Amino acid sequence: MEWLDRPGKEALQNVLQVAMQHGGDFADIFVEKKVSQGIGCEDDKIERLSSGVDVGAGIRVIAGEATAYAYTNDLTVEGLTQAAQVASHAAQGGAQGQVVDLRPALSPVDLTVELPPDQVTVDDKVAHVLRANQQARSMDERIKQVSVMYADVVQAVTVANSEGVYMEDERVRSRFVVHAVAAGDSGIQTGYESLGGTVGFELFREKEPEAVAQAAVNRALLLLSAQPAPTGKMPVVMAGSAGGTMVHEACGHGLEADLVQKGLSVYGGKLGQSVASPLVTVIDDGTLAGKYGALRFDDEGTPGQRTVLIEEGELKGYMYDRFTAAKEKRASTGNGRRESYQHKPIPRMTNTIIAPGKEDPTAIIKDTPRGLLVTRMGGGQVNTTTGDFVFDVAEGYLIEKGEVTHAVRGATLTGNGPEALKVVDRVGSDLGFAIGTCGKDGQGVPVADAQPTMRMKSLIVGGTGAAEPSGPQIRRIEAMPWNEDVDGGYGRIRRR
Length: 496
What we know:
This protein has 496 residues and is an alpha+beta fold.
């Protein structure tokens, strides 16, 4: 992607010197140009075709525990200097910062894109949307509504900081979602399927538009004939296809260092302690090429990393950005992320997974006399301080005598994140991913989460009227696959 009047290395170094002219321990500049395109089909026709360009820079100065942040969409030397002066006056104090020569940063992560979105015509993109729409509407007369969304974003980024880091990067993400509504004797049911990653238009080599549509329609039709979910405590088998919503929400956020340092995490003060079953290993891995949360560098110029958070049940570490890492005299784990140049970076997940085990997933089901099989998660809510959660099940089945029998609807899972991980007694060798836009502190960033098939010995399964978790730190997770997210795309789930 071409830049117009992109600030050079020397200009950024001069701006950093201005930012630290009144003192400060650290300063950085985040320069961004983002081009996005979205296409939406509703009511059997293209209802939305949008594109946009956003350009700007954010300048941060840290002095002790204080952070000053200023941003501008004027990328001239004068514009950047003015923003740097604002930040410098707001962050007086700390050591007199010395800006060193900027040097290029290197990353081991290869995120090469084969078919850049800007090299694909709008007509081709629209054609893929219409193919999915036609497939979904032709499958069954009970399908009453279909929504198809395609989105891509190309983000060119430059980061420079007072420690000498200089990074240039181009990030590409593409996403495709089909949402189907079916009506029958049992009422109205919905189904959706999504596809996405740090890829270009080669996204559709993974799955054709028709296949995405078929999956969404089949899920909606299945729920029309599904029986009411059973209630009570029982074993719950989470299939790999369910994705890692639970590990992301009920576990992952509690392992972000800012929440730990603020006393808002159930995992605070537990390093080295057993916090999960010995079968559970949790990893945040920004180096998984092609996955939706993958990155060469985070938004502070730190290379993407693989961070083991929980290893065989033992808490090993947290996810840090530069600010939270400095508080503990640690190195950043490459988790400093931001929505755009208008936001300062904070610790965020990338691709968060429960590592696969060694068991045959089918054997786990066969060894479960009675329970619930969850193959797709929906929305819900989480208390980030205690880990208490209530999750909706978008697709689930009853397990009877080791066999998967009929589909169920209206199921919810209620429990506590750390406690749920402690009762994991079987872990399969598979691994399934899901994508989403994760919201925190008013910022949304693209993420992926994943888990293998695993069994929890006992969770509370209830109807849709389950009570909310108590406490002030409630996070609501809404299944909104048809809604627009922060980069102009559409997501499987928005977490906020």
